[in-house]
Amino acid sequence: MHTVTRLLADAPAQLLPARQMMAFTLASHIVLVPFGVALPFITLVMHHRGLRRADPAAMLLARRWSAVMAVQFAVGVVTGTVLSFEFGLLWPGMMGRWGDVFGVGFGVEAWAFFLEAVLIAVYLYGWRRLKPWTHFWLGVPLPLAALLGAFGIIAANSWMNTPQGFTLDAGGNPVDVDVRQAVFTPMFGPEYWHFVVAMFLTAGYVVAGVYAVGWLRGRRDRYHRLGFCVPFTVAAVLTPVQFFLGDNIARQIYHKQPVKFAAAELVWDTDTHVPEYLFGRLQEDGTVKGGLKIPQLDSILAGFTPDTQVTGLSSVPAADRPTATQATIVHWAFDIMATIGSVLILLALWYAWCWWRRRDLPRSRWFFRCAAVAGVASVVTVECGWITTEVGRQPWIVYQNMRVSEAVTPTGAASLWTMFAVVAGVYVLVLGAFLTVLLKMRTRWRLAGTAGAQSPESDTPYGPRPELATTGPAAGPTTPPAAPGRTGEGTE
User: Keyword Protein biosynthesis on this protein (predicted)?
Assistant: First the structure.
């Protein structure tokens, strides 16, 4: 406790509000990222199915998902822009010294953002205005632009974890920058693929969870079946893949960031035959309180043998490692992420078994209850992943090159707390508006499928609405055709 008090006393007063603001905005923005990265792909999968099979239910789902995609992108513009400004406003020490080294990642992300905005506009405009397959192929670059944006962000973050591609002059400033090495750092590959698969998996489970709730409420039509099956299949296929990617990135952290690994596993002393703790809390004296202790398992997981030596937190000075509280936060985040991932594998196997045996969905209501919860659980794992990555690197903002306290703004703490309150208020309003719009869209779409209204089974985004293509005296032979893209837009 004395060590923690001393470290807090040595830190600038503005460090706490700066970190809290960055954590809040990042945690809020990351909720939207799975939809920005993966929803375009899932939408195009449904779009392709609708075109190839002339399936109006699939086409309606694709169009509605594209509307959600656009709303999410608009909200993401706000939250992402705030984050971009915060890097410069809150951490000028890092950006001023290291911006020339790793800033290319943010440049790539910015270009990908503008490209994605144009492609989303074209894709939305194309419904009812372009030929069906032309419209589909114009949407195909959308997932690629989303992956390019993820490339830029992960390139910057992986550099912060394993910085390279520069040399330091006598004043400690980076010179002789090698952009290729700065982008493709040792942690880039493991981080990128782990992140991308997490985004696709999360988006799949969240979207499928919406239709799982509808299924539990008795909506068993083909529209809800398709809305559940396509995204859930994407997520179920990727779940075991993510399990192996997660194991790989943990092993890479063991080799390249041993102190972060020690924090995630609550390892105090460097040793072999190290036990694995499931949950538990690290104390200031290095003991672990609570949790389930499994002898030797941590060494086995790290190097496939109990004789594997694991670096402990005490191997470096207290000023160069996470505090006991930070280590406990990282450990819990890592264990929650691993636990949820393991349960999702069981859910995916349940789905695969029923599909293999009967070519049908599971019949148990408990399966759909679990599927409905899986979306929320996946978002929790994404949050836990970023906590593990960022808190585990403490006290470094650039691993072993710059501390967080050296990068923070000189702006007074009072001003930062005020700014934090304003940002939090804006985020609450923006995210509240986002949820309100989604709920109104859901209500409108549900009314469109009720008795007496347009059926989701027969609607199609290409051509006139079914109710306008009527015959008989009321319509008359001279009734003009519906203008593509305009008639009936209120029911979409």
Answer: no
Q: Tens of pLDDT along 60-77?
A: 999 999 988 888 888 888
In a domain, 292, yes or no: no
3-class SS string, 89-132: HHCHHHHHHHHHHHHHHHHHHHHHHHHHHHHHHHHHHHCCCCCH
Does residue 166 sit within a domain?
A: yes
H or E stretch at 398: strand 396-398
pLDDT number for residue 303: 86
Round the average pLDDT of the chain to a whole number and report it.
85
**CA distance linking residue 347 with residue 354, whole number of Å:** 11
Neighbours of 483 (CB within 10 A): 9
User: How far is residue 127's CA from residue 62's CA, in Å, rounded to a whole number?
Assistant: 10
pLDDT digits (tens, 9 = 90+) for 202-212: 999 999 999 99
Q: pLDDT digits over 13-51, tens only? A: 889 999 999 999 998 888 888 888 999 999 999 999 999
Q: Is residue 108 part of a domain?
A: yes
Q: Which two tokens stand for residue 477?
A: 């032979």
Flag whether 480 is in a domain: yes
Note the Cα 458 to chain centre separation in Å.
34
Full DSSP string of 118-186: HHHHHHHHHTTTS-HHHHHHHHTHHHHHHHHHHHHHHHHHHHHHS--S-EE-TTS-EES--HHHHHS-T
Distance in angstroms (rounded) separating the CA atoms of residues 407 and 181: 23
Give the Cβ contact number of residue 8 at 10 Å: 11
Provide the pLDDT confidence category of residue 461 given band limits of 50, 70 and 90: low
Q: Domain total for the chain? A: 1
Residue-range definition of the domain harbouring residue 112: 14-187+393-491
- Residue length of the chain: 492
- Exposed, middle or buried: residue 168 (CB in 10 Å: 0-12, 13-18, 19+)? exposed
